Amino acid sequence: MKIGRGLLIGIPVGFLTVFYLYPVASILLAGLVEGGGLDFTPFGDVLTSASLRGVAWFTLWQAAASTALTVLAAMPIAYVFARFEFPGKRLLSALLTVPFVMPTVVVGSAFLALLGSSSPLGINLNRTIWIIFAAHVFYNVAVVVRTVGGLWSHLDPRMEEAARSLGANRWQAFRTVTLPLLRPAIVAAGSIVFLFTFTSFGVILILGGLTYATLEVEIYRQTTVFLNLPIAAALAVFQLVGVTAVLWVYSRYQRHREVGLSLLPRLAVARRPSTPRQRLAVAGMIAYLGAIVVLPLAVLVARSLDTGNLWRFYRALTETGSGSTAFVSPAEAIGNSLWIAGLATLIALIVGMSAAAVVAYSSGPAARTFDLFLMLPLGTSAVTIGFGMLVALDWPIDLRANVLLIPLAHALVAIPFVVRLSVPVMRSVQPRLREAAAVLGASPLRIWREIDLPIAARALAVSAGFAFAISLGEFGATSFIARPDTPTLPIAIFRLLGRPGALNFGQAMAMSTILMAVTAAVVLLVDRLRIRDIGEF
Amino acid sequence: MLTAHRLSKRFGATVALSDIDLEVEAGETVSVLGPSGSGKSTLLRVISGLEVPDAGSVLWNHADVTLLPAHARQFGLMFQDYALFPHRDVAGNVGFGLRMAGGSASEVEHRVAEVLELVGLSGMERRRINQLSGGEAQRVALARTLAPAPRLVMLDEPLGSLDRSLRERLIVELGEIFERVDSTVLYVTHDQEEAFTIADRVAVLRDGKLIQAATPEDLWAAPAGVFVSDFLGFSNRFAATAIDGQADLGWATVPVDVPDGPCQVVLRPDALIADETGKITVTVAGSVFRGDHYLARTTTESGSQLSISTPTRPHPGQRIRIRLDPAGILALTE
After folding, report:
1. Is residue B228 part of a domain?
2. Does any CB of chain A come closer than 8 Å to the CB of residue B76?
3. Is there a smaller number of Cβ atoms within 10 Å at the N or the C end of chain B?
4. Is A327 exposed, middle or buried (0-12, 13-18, 19+ CB in 10 A)?
């Protein structure tokens, strides 16, 4: 038992130390150490540079605005999902999750197709902040709907009815009763959205052009374009500080969420829409969901098809050789993505499930700290992780040029998700069940095999699906560590988008469509396995 | 035979069990009766091996099993919320203990069918747990507990979450089932009627202490104190002073069997008899319909409150004459 527990703690701690703490610490040192001593000049350079200050300011306000817009866009959906039962609800709910695991590169290209210079709607928002906002809302709306809707669907509607009977109108009842009760969920979801938009990379890189850059994009540019490591490191430090602050707020509210609400089973709360007004609300929400979630994806598919020669862009994907030396056939990129995602999933499951077991079966401040430690990679920008690995992992074995670095980095990004999805499932095994098994004659080992394992098996399957989808779409870290001859799908898409011509654009759309189809299939598959109401972010 | 010897258990500052001595003979059904928080569930958990006592020991046929892990005791425990395994169907739950004991698939299948028949759920093997009604879940939990034929069957408020009519039917069935399988049973409840219906002996627990263990008849005849008397639902209790075997209640003088000094006089329902020729007159304040009788709240001439059962509905203000039967009068000194 002792050895088992030591191993359970040792695996995640060891993995995160070598592949996360050490690389990130190396970046800090790279920024601070100059000629054997501490050197703070890069920080001064960042603070005195008007353009870099502009980047920091832009990062902050666009994240705040994106978060506010996402919450606003998500609340009506959360309400309808929480309060009504209607046909196709499950499918819609799964569909809503698709954008969240969609590769940022695909989201970028989808909005380029929808609201770019050749917009089918005739709305050209290219190079404006609005196209970035639209993509951010699309990408993150599921986080808010899942988290807020999850809590909302268990809130006793009689509380609001009591307020109504005491003379409050609909809006007052919502504002004074429901909203305060939902606040912990809104803040928690908002923090996560803020975190994602604060470290937004792929979307900004594709949609922001040269006009807009977040810290994340700037770190990438400073490293790959200007080769200015100290400035990049200083920027990474600034970003890390901001991210840690947000994570702290998040974890505070996470803990508050666990206490003191009288919650009802979901079925007792949701009902079929009965009045015309309610039917209108549900129908309106479905139309609205179609507009903000389905439309961008549909346009992506449409643009991947050529009007004259329907499958031209797809066929072009299978043809090799386009002159450039670094060119790798798209088919090969798909192959790379698949084996990398498979390996990353395996690593993420081993590390993540061990960690989840530790978190689920222990309590107290030590367990909470460990839990927060596991969340750190989620809060660290992918670019920082990729950058750090590139700087640090040359000793004792030089992993920097090794293609295995990609699945390792992807696993690192996926681990927090695996932990968050698995812990509630593992915790849902009530101690009572283990006790019941014990009095029926099951030894501790047998209890684990008969009770814990079968229940955790579903968490394992769900986590595997998510880890796989995350790895397929990962762009930030990969953009640093992928070698020119082993691109993944998102990297190949980004490269195609950077080339001129309708054929390249069409191929990028076709590849995005394939990537979208694969991730959507994985998400829908996972949703069938998903145990209701648990594992929400 | 189960022997609990001087069991004590505390959780932080709370004393859950304090020096409990209790025996359950083979084939006997003992009910542990007490209000919530009296330590009933803890007693079961300690005996089953899910908790280790701070002091004292648990013996089975004089062999100490205090440190034997729960899974090796062959004591069955039915949980208050049933704790059915949600990922297994009815047969998977009922057959669990048999599989743990190493039964072959066909043995398990055979025994599961047998036990399901015993609890009246024949043919329900493949039902999922979340499709069961409250009463069915209760029966499945009982079947799961009984299937491996445990040496001792323990039940923690097994009827607690069921509605009244179902409870009254099931308690009788439970008794019959225990009779048929000749089990040794420890039955925890907070319901005095349930305890009296099922138990050969009742052990009353309060704040982790065993107050009294006796047959239902003895408990009824001679509750060991005010707590037990109140818990049995005897509502007519008066503080008085005993002098030479007599106590003056203000409106009547009754014989008491306690030494001189302060005491509590309890008039059981059978002590109060409506009688036209009775010497005591009470005035009705109000009444409650109880199905086969009415319970009248009345006031004596000296202003004491007295509850009396009457066959017809009494009217407020109505005067009733009663007499006291000494056989129903109890005197308690604590």
Report:
1. no
2. yes
3. C
4. middle
Q: Would residue A374 count as lying in a domain?
A: yes
Q: Of B73, B81, B100, which is closest to A446 when you measure between CB atoms?
A: B100
> Does residue A517 lie in a domain region?
yes
A216 and A329 co-located in one domain? no
Distance separating alpha carbons of residues A32 and A230, to the nearest angstrom = 7
Asked if B85's CB is within 8 angstroms of A437's CB, the reply is: yes
The DSSP string of B124-135 is: -TT--GGG--HH
pLDDT (mean) for A219-231 = 82
Helix A89-101 to helix A129-152 angle (10° resolution) is 130
| Set of chain A residues whose Cβ sits within 8 Å of the Cβ of B144 | 436, 440
Q: Which residues of B touch A433 (CB under 8 A)?
A: 83, 85
The number of domains in chain B is 2
**Residue contact A450–B101, C-beta within 8 A:** no
What is the extent of the structural domain holding A437? 1-39+311-537
Instruction: Show which of B223, B253, B272 is a domain's final residue.
Output: B223
What token pair was written down for B71? 């899974």
Cα–Cα distance measured from residue A411 to residue A353, given in angstroms and rounded to the nearest whole number: 12
Q: Which of B41, B96, B156, B161 to mutate to test the interface with A (most CBs of A within 10 A)?
A: B96
Contacts of A455 in chain B (CB under 8 A): 86-87
Domain assignment present for residue B275? The answer is: yes
pLDDT-based confidence at residue A132 (cuts at 50, 70, 90): very high
Residues B29, B137 within the same domain: yes
Mean of the pLDDT values across residues B239-266?
90
Domain shared by A340 and A453, yes or no: yes
Q: Which residue range is the domain that position B326 belongs to?
A: 234-332
- Of A163 and A107, more confident: A107
> From the CA of B320, how many Å to the nearest CA of chain A?
47
- B253 in the same domain as B149: no
Give yes or no: residues B57 and B122 share one domain.
yes
Q: How many CA atoms lie within 13 A of B227 on its CB side?
A: 15
* Domain identity same for A28 and A83: no
For A59-112, the pLDDT digits (tens) are 999 999 999 999 999 998 888 888 888 888 877 877 887 787 777 888 888 888
Residue B39 is assigned to a structural domain of this protein = yes
- CB–CB contact B81 A442 (8 Å): no
Q: Identify which has the larger pLDDT, A195 or A378.
A: A195
B97 contacts chain A (CB < 8 A): yes
